[in-house]
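Q: Sequence in, structure out?
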Amino acid sequence: MTRLRAGALTYLHTHRHAAAWSLLGPGMFWLTIFFLVPLLIVFAYSFMKRGLYGGIELQFTLESYRRFFDPLYLDIFKRTFVLSVLTTVICLVIGYPMAYVIAGSGKWKDILLFLVILPFWTSLLVRTYAMIFLMRDTGLINTWLMDLGVIPKPITMLYTEPAVVVGLVYGSLPFMILPVYASIEKLDHSLLEAAEVLGARPAVRFLKVTVPLTLPGILAGCLLVFIPALGSFLGPDLLGGAKHMMIGNLVQNQFGAARNWPFGSAVSFMLMGVVLISMLIYMRVQGREALGAMGGP
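A: Exactly. Output:
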């Protein structure tokens, strides 16, 4: 009887294991063919030599990685990092209050959330061109300001770093609002009431209770904004012009006009290294938060 029961349990375990792999199989196959294999090809390209007329030569070299540390490309990387951090900070400053208001808006909550995700109904390219029509010298903003007598002549807004930041914030803001909103929505308001009973002022309650409890949403939002901003190329290309190139534009140019696939591959993997470091920092902070919630050291 014991052997029969053990055999039945083994069969059920094997059956469940096979069923799980059958469900994972299509997704794993898709990710392997269309993500892992191309990634490995690009990784191999980064160690090869550029062909005379583009393409690659099957010759191992580290020249593409050495070239990345040229001051010209390090300056592009520095600009990309600074603008990405600035975009993340601005999105947090704007997005946190919006998420807080939406979470407490009662019957208006669904409508406000709908307005947050409404921009996703339109292509990013169309939205970026709309920003161009707003910020160009003959655009809507300059026209209104001159009609109101605020400025005597158009202000140069397009093809500047502030224009790039505005475009990045415009495209990334919903990615900050939604995770922060989800974190605020799960907030235990009895803890705020307890802090109020103990005499904590509103500012203290916000800083000591609300912010720490919504920190996972803040970190997730910052990650969802920072990583796409690092690799963004459409907004910087259209709003910043050639004078304000970011890493994404550099990769695009190397695979396109310059036809230097090895260097473009090397830059891509250097950028992936920064993204990986950001993910590791996020996971480490999340682990500490979870350990602190369980009362660990």
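The longest strand covers residues 49-50.
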